[in-house]
Every structure is written in C-alpha cells, then in structure tokens.
Write a structure and sequence with these properties.
With 236 residues, the protein is mainly α. It has 9 helices and 3 strands. The chain folds into 2 domains: 69 residues, Orthogonal Bundle (Arc Repressor Mutant, subunit A), CATH 1.10.10.10; 151 residues, GntR ligand-binding domain-like (Four Helix Bundle (Hemerythrin (Met), subunit A)). The chain is globular.
C-alpha cells in the first residue's frame, strides 16, 4: 500500500513522518515475509513500491540495516539478510534471563500489581472464549510477556526486553500458525500466571523457562518450513 503523500514542498516534519511510515511498512513486509530473506531491490524500486521519494526510503532502509534486517552492497543494492538462528538463540536466552528476573520480583511482592488483572482477563478464560486468529494471539502473547516484565517495576529491564521482542518478532509470530500451538500457549500462560499469583517462585520460573524454550524450538521448525513455502509461492 503506497504511503500517503502531501502537496507542496516537504517540511522537515513531513520527511520524518514519511521516513517513519516507510520504516514501519518495510519492517512489516519483512515480518510477513512479503520481503523474503535474500530478496534484492534498489532504493528507487522500493520508493516506487511505497509511493514515496528515495530520501525517506533511504532513511528507513539504513534504520533497518542498523537493526540487522537489511544489508546494502555498492553494486547490487539492498537485500534482506538471511535469518541468523544463532543470533536469535542468543536473544531468546537474554529474554529468558529478563523474564525470570521479573517473575522473581513479582513473586517477592506482597500484593499483585494492577497490570496482572488484564492478564487474568485475557488468559484465564474457558477454551470456548479463546482467540483463534494468528495475528491477535501473537500480539496478545507479546503483551503477556511484556506486561509481566513491566509489572515487575524495573523500567530499564522493560526497555531492554521490548528491544529483544522487536528483534525476534520476525520468527516469533510464526509460533501461532498452528492451532495446537495457540492452545498450548493459552494453557502454559495460565499455569505461569497462576503460579505467580500464588507466589510459587520456583514453579513459575520453571514453567516460564520451559514455555519460552519450547516456543523457540517450535519457531525454528516452523520458520524453515514457512520460508520454503513462501519461496515456492513467489517462484510460482
């Protein structure tokens, strides 16, 4: 979808807004595999695709390069970098450490922070009330883990955790392409949340670590298959 254009000479704020929109749309294209790892393109081609000039596109591309999603070569232009599973494994390991520390802080509290009420309403529900849409469950899953960290009360840990979330989103959302993984997430989140509410620290941490490790393993398998299928669709 082309970005919204404006009439008249562009102002500094207009250029910044277009660059931000281009960045968000390009990142979404990468996350949705509309741009596949290995795909190549020029700044002018992407500008035409998004409906904006090369300047905001270039700013967005370099921002995504700094985040590790893209790379550029002098003669062949831009390309989407292959998924680095070793790097993703390290990010998942960091995520585990941050969330375990946050659970420890939550279990040490004498009362429940108000943020947990929203998690109870979302995850402690009968099977018939569970969401089934992949995107909705993926977003709700991110919110579950981010809320646990935020509710623990350390803003700096929450910032680092959100940065990790941004970096693993490209594969994490693929964990919800199968119905059994959606159901498993509801069951596991409910167990984690109940253990925290009951101040059962060891149980909560064990459940949380197992949940994330299982998700990491499933994501790796799903990603490889999805990339293969996506490439076949593009070639077809």
């Amino acid at each position: 979808m082309p970005l919204r254009s404006v009439s008249g000479p562009p102002t500094e704020s207009t250029r910044a807004n277009l660059a931000e929109q281009a960045y968000a749309q390009l990142k979404e294209m990468i996350h949705d595999f509309a741009l596949l790892p290995g795909d190549r393109f020029s700044e002018s081609e992407m500008g035409a695709r998004l409906g904006v000039s090369r300047t905001p596109v270039r700013e967005a591309l370099f921002r995504l390069r700094n985040e590790g999603f893209l790379e550029v070569e002098s003669k062949s232009g831009w390309y989407v970098k292959p998924i680095d599973f070793d790097r993703l494994d390290q990010l998942y390991d960091l995520r585990v450490l941050l969330e375990l520390a946050s659970v420890a802080r939550l279990c040490a509290r004498s009362s429940d922070p108000p943020e947990l009420e929203a998690l109870k309403a979302a995850w402690l529900v009968p099977a018939g009330e569970r969401l089934a849409d992949m995107r909705e469950v993926g977003a709700l899953d991110e919110l579950f883990h981010a809320t646990l960290v935020r509710a623990a009360g350390n803003a700096e840990i929450a910032k680092v955790h959100w940065d990790v979330t941004e970096r693993i989103r490209i594969v994490r959302r693929l964990d919800f392409t199968r119905e059994d993984r959606i159901d498993a997430t509801y069951v596991e989140h409910a167990k984690i949340l109940r253990a925290i509410l009951q101040r059962k620290l060891d149980q909560a941490q064990l459940l949380l670590k197992s949940h994330i490790e299982q998700s990491k393993a499933e994501v790796r398998k799903i990603t490889l298959g999805t990339l293969h299928e996506a490439r076949l669709r593009v070639r077809g």
